[in-house]
Structure formats: C-alpha cells, structure tokens
Amino acid sequence: MVPEPAEEAERVKRAVEALKELALATGVGVVAVTAADRVGLDARRLRLHHFRGSTALAYEADVALVLNEKVAVVAKAHLAYDTTRAAEFRRQVVFSVEKNRNGEAGVELEFRKDFANCRFDPRGSWVTERLWEEGTVEE
Q1: Is the pTM for the entire model greater than 0.70?
Q2: What is the DSSP string of 1-57?
Q3: Can you tell me the distance from the alpha carbon of 50 to that of 43, in angstroms, rounded to the nearest whole number?
Q4: Is 86 part of a structural domain of the chain?
Q5: Are 67 and 122 in a shared domain?
Q6: 67 lies in the same domain as 124
Q7: Looking at the predicted structure, is the pLDDT value of residue 88 above 80?
Q8: Can you say how many angstroms the Cα of residue 81 is from the centroid of all Cα atoms in its chain?
Q9: Is the pLDDT of residue 121 over 80?
C-alpha cells in the first residue's frame, strides 16, 4: 500500500487520478465536488484556479462547472439603482463552464434556487448581465 502524501496538492492529485481511472474502467460518468482553497474563500467570484488541487483538476477533468451566487458576481452597475433586480439576483446561481474538453467553455448559465425542493429549477437561461471579472475595476 502506498503511504498517504503529506502535501494536500498531492493527495488531491491522487484522488482526481483515481476518479478518472474509475470512470475510464467502468464507462460511467463521475461527478466530484471539491473545496475552495483559502484564496478562493475570500474571492468575490470563485474560479477553477481557486480550488484545492486546481492543477490536477484542470488537467484531468473533462468538464469543470463552478457555481457562484449571482448577486455576488454580477457587475455592480446592474445592482446600483434597482433593488428589485438585486432581490431576483439573490434567488439565482451562475453556473460557469470553466473547462469543457469536448465542447465550449466560458459559458455562463443562470438557474433559480429551489432549495425547498433540494434542487435548482431546471429551466435555466443564459446570463445576460455583465459579470465581475478578476482584475476589473468597478465604480
């Protein structure tokens, strides 16, 4: 048996590689949830590079989806003068396709929360508002 590595990045890498091997060997899709690193917890908008073991995730995963609260990631210009829209944004989550090995990436979709029924409303739509990007300055 191989001893557990001391470094977290190496542990995540091993887990990601094992999940990929499991998917390839069995022919089934594997969905995994991962935690954000310390920088990601403080970030306004969570991106793929904010996850623990992000290098291994970015390399091994076929698809990476990142979920963010819409009210947190929409550009402030959309919130400044319309409290009704802000309330609506609080009820939505942005699903960002950060990586897609066999398709388009950089896709931003929004879905309403329906947590009373333990789900998101399956009738989502494209995000039409401008989203905050790291390195941009907002007034």
Answers
A1: yes
A2: -PPPPSSHHHHHHHHHHHHHHHHHHHT--------B-HHHHH-SS--GGGBTTHHHH
A3: 8
A4: yes
A5: yes
A6: yes
A7: yes
A8: 28
A9: yes
Q: CB count, 10 Å around CB of 37?
A: 17
The torsion angles phi and psi of 31, rounded to 5 degrees, stand at: -110, 125
What domain range includes position 29?
A: 1-61
Q: Is the pLDDT of residue 139 over 60?
A: no
Same domain, 69 and 90: yes
> CB of 50 within 8 A of CB of 40?
yes
Q: Taking residues 124-134, report their average pLDDT.
A: 91
29 and 42 part of one domain: yes
C-alpha of 94 from chain center: 8
Helix spans in 27-133 (H): 38-42, 54-60, 70-73, 83-90
Tell me, yes or no, whether 73 and 126 share the same domain: yes
Residue identified by tokens 């089934």 is 28
Q: Is residue 74 part of a domain?
A: yes
